[in-house]
Amino acid sequence: MKISKRAEYGLRAVINLGIAEALERDRVTATDLAACDNLPLKFIEQIMGDLRGAGYVDTKRGRFGGYFIAKPMTEIRMGDIVRLLDGPLAPISCASQTAYEACSCPDEAHCGLRMLMIDVRNAIANILDRYTLENVVEVTLRKIRRDNASHFFLNDRAAKPATRPPSDPADPSDGFLAGLAGITKN
Prior knowledge:
By secondary structure, this protein is mainly alpha-helical. The protein contains seven helices and two strands. The protein folds into two domains: 5-77 and 132-178, Winged helix-like DNA-binding domain superfamily/Winged helix DNA-binding domain (Arc Repressor Mutant, subunit A, Orthogonal Bundle); 89-130, no CATH class. The protein has helices at residues 5-22, 30-36, 41-53, 78-86, 112-130, 133-146, 176-179, and strands at residues 57-60, 66-69.
C-alpha cells in the first residue's frame, strides 16, 4: 500500500500540530505548517479543511489565529487520519472491509491473492490503528532531542540540522516501532 500525497501531507501536518501543542504553542498558521515540511500551501489549506470538518483540528481566526488539535491527542488514531484522507486501507477492493467490491476472480473465497491482501490490510490497519497522535509526537520529540536535531517549532539555534540516514533510509531500527522502546502504555 502506498498512501497518497494528500494523506502523507495530512499526517505530516497533524503530527506537526501535535508537536506544536506538546511544545505549548497554541496555534499554527497554514503558512507555518506548509513551510515546516516544504509542502504546498494551497494543498495544506484544503487538507486542513477536511481535517477540520472531521473534528480533528480547529481554527481560530485573527491576528493570533491558526490551526490547533481539536481533541485529545490520545483519541486521534493514525489509521483514522489515513482513512479520512485516502479512503480504505486495503490494497485491492475485494480485500476491503469498508469499500468492498468484487474482483474478476472466479472463486474469491479461495483466491490466494485476496487472502494475501487481506493479511496486508490487517497488518497495516493494526499498526495505524494501534498508535495515536500522542504516541507519534512523543517518539518524534524524543528522537529529535536525543539527536539534538532541529525542528521548525523548536527555537534551538544550537541544534544540528536534520540529516538523512547514512546507509539504509528504510532501516527498521530507525523506524517508529523501534522508537517506542521506553514508552509505557497506559
